[in-house]
């Protein structure tokens, strides 16, 4: 049984052998946060409390299991919102304690990467491009359980940039899917900057792009000009995708890997999936493994898949496991007993 509650999705899943999803119940709070234009931490925590026991019941019913069928409990313990994480961690500890099950501590970003595991097993060495609401990272994985961040955003995450420009266009949070749909209809007429694209590193920056977008929009408003929103979306998305793909290709030159994994909420983006696929088609030695679209956002199935790697090695946490809102991206070494 796996738990995820790091942000605004309460989720419980039942996973078999880290590869088969028996159930994956996701209760999203999007409606509650919409009117604030983003996630309000205190509101998120309260929703998690209300939803978590319902998610446990539904996940078990859907998978047709009882507590006796379970062999371990896995939970996201960081990074994320501390109050939100605490609900999942407490629920997981309760189930582990009451039913004498081992407790597996999972890093949320490792979970995002392992969502791709439901397509096929991960082959090492692998490189992961993790693009989500809070993170944009290139992660090198020489072997199972080893994560090395070789590049990351220096300011905004890609998903965050989507949500912020979406807000300017009057699109409800989370704006990513709508901007993505609009981008399919427009043209790249604004030629926004591709920040750090040619820099000899694997880092990203999206705050300059966000400012360029907002300045363009407000300037047009001031002079009474009407800009084409689809063209704005296409121009924004082209800049984001160009940089993500270029930096990934640069990384692949120095880290030749068997698999490139695309994961995180923004990995659902059509433009990104398409452009990355055609770039990787040119590299016969590297296979592109994309997390299934419906497992790109936060869910507990991906946490269960990542947990299975630790389960096989007997890496468990004690019942003193705590939420760690700024957990570093390694394989949970401090909490494993
Ligand atoms: P993190 O995983 O970094 O802690 P998070 O869990 O809040 O952050 P995810 O749930 O992984 O983030 O992803 C949510 C983000 O993905 C939002 O910013 C949302 O706008 C974005 N997103 C979702 N679908 C798309 C899409 N099709 N195109 C672009 N962005 C998208
Ligand atoms: Mg979310
Ligand atoms: Fe996430």
UniProtKB/TrEMBL annotation:
Binding site for Fe cation: 108, 112, 298
Name of the top EC class for this enzyme: transferase
Cofactor note: Binds 1 Fe(2+) ion per subunit.
Segments forming domain Gcp-like: 20-304
Key word Cytoplasm present: yes
Catalysed conversion reaction: L-threonylcarbamoyladenylate + adenosine(37) in tRNA = N(6)-L-threonylcarbamoyladenosine(37) in tRNA + AMP + H(+)
Keywords, comma-separated and alphabetical: Acyltransferase, Cytoplasm, Iron, Metal-binding, Transferase, tRNA processing
Keyword match Transferase: yes
Pfam family, one: TsaD
Entry cofactors: Fe(2+)
A molecular-function term among this protein's GO annotations: tRNA N(6)-L-threonylcarbamoyladenine synthase activity
Biological process, per Gene Ontology: tRNA threonylcarbamoyladenosine modification
Locations listed in the record: Cytoplasm
Superkingdom: Bacteria
A cellular component term, taken from the record's GO annotations: cytoplasm
EC number(s) stated in the UniProt entry for this protein: 2.3.1.234
Binding site for substrate: 130-134, 163, 176, 180, 269
Family membership: Belongs to the KAE1 / TsaD family.
Main function: Required for the formation of a threonylcarbamoyl group on adenosine at position 37 (t(6)A37) in tRNAs that read codons beginning with adenine. Is involved in the transfer of the threonylcarbamoyl moiety of threonylcarbamoyl-AMP (TC-AMP) to the N6 group of A37, together with TsaE and TsaB. TsaD likely plays a direct catalytic role in this reaction.
The protein's name in its UniProt record: tRNA N6-adenosine threonylcarbamoyltransferase
Upper classification of the organism: Bacteria, Bacillati, Bacillota, Bacilli, Lactobacillales
